[in-house]
Predict the structure.
Amino acid sequence: GQSLEQPSEVTAVEGAIVQINCTYQTSGFYGLSWYQQHDGGAPTFLSYNALDGLEETGRFSSFLSRSDSYGYLLLQELQMKDSASYFCAVPDLNSGNTPLVFGKGTRLSVIA
Amino acid sequence: EADIYQTPRYLVIGTGKKITLECSQTMGHDKMYWYQQDPGMELHLIHYSYGVNSTEKGDLSSESTVSRIRTEHFPLTLESARPSHTSQYLCASSESTLGTEAFFGQGTRLTVV
């Protein structure tokens, strides 16, 4: 099956930059996605990387290194509203029709 | 805005009852998923479907069943609810191609007493 590792918690100061890492072990790989989930809410899609490199979307960027089986989500100019859980996800190529499987999530706390 | 809906949002039910959680999407997506998530914890895949009349169990089938008779509808049924089923259940959908965004419903928070 697929295995994704993320730190369980990260704390950062408002206005700062934070990086949330994700390492994966998969028998096949197609791409890495990131989702944000606020307490009591549903996960929402942030970004997707299929190729090596950095993808930038406003304050959020996502990076992938396929050779290192590693990716990260970079959040800049942190705001209090960025306090949430962040999940990396991959399609499970071992299972028929590739369901999306998630890491255990990283809880980000932004403090003043 | 995602067009995927779950009902009910909250449900309290007694042990042994049969319940069905509803999920519908209007985006025409082939793939649909059910995840179970305790507060602040990871998402566990329960069931998924890749089209009408095609369903598969995830790692955590949770003594539940699903059906996919229509593209837009993917209900989840617990035949006999237990307190261990107390959790949040999230439904999601995506297009058939790999790497596309998954859209989530707002979830059903289930409490079995």
